[in-house]
Amino acid sequence: MTRPSGAAWSAGAGGAALGRMADALRGPVVGIGVDAVDPERFGQVLARRPRLAERLFTPAERDCARRGADPVARLSTRFAAKEAAWKALGVGLGGVALHDVEVVGGGDRAPSLSLHGRAAALATSAGVGRWHVSLTHTDRVAMAVVLAEGSTPAASGATGSSRSG
Asked: How confident is the model over 21-55, as pLDDT tens digits?
């Protein structure tokens, strides 16, 4: 992968995060997903429907959010990451169970994904070997970028072609 040069690549923290993702790639890109959530609106929905958090997030995700200064911001970024992962897998809301994509880490650890059930099966059939996750939020937006990386061509026996999602 050749890194673009110039201001478009180096502009802001988002460019730096994408640069680190590109530097870390060892195999073909299988899929990429981006999603944004309005934390204020998301918090209002959670307040109106208190059990919704249990439907959307695993116990570990909810526990991680409670340990932070702003639990709604943490849940918002995790929901954005779930949506971005679904997009990287080529499915939408309802394509896999809500708990099938779990965001682990964050805070003092780099975020990553743990897939279960149908999401894990889809990732395996698509040849996903590794996930790259970048999360960020402000008061107005929570964003996630998720990149699904395939196995290296030498390891998978591929001939150099890759699937794009």
From this structure: 556 667 799 999 999 999 999 999 999 998 999 99
CATH architecture type of domain 16-156: Alpha-Beta Complex (3.90)
- Over residues 57-69, the pLDDT tens digits come to 999 999 999 988 8
H helices, E strands: number in the chain:
8, 5
Residue 42 CB: number of other CB atoms within 10 A?
20
Q: Which residues neighbour 68 within 8 Å (Cβ) at sequence distance 6 or greater?
A: 74, 107
List CB contacts of 8: < 8 A, sequence separation 6 or more.
Answer: 15
> Domain locations in the chain?
16-156
What is the pTM (predicted TM-score) of this model? 0.77
Pair of tokens at residue 64: 């991680």
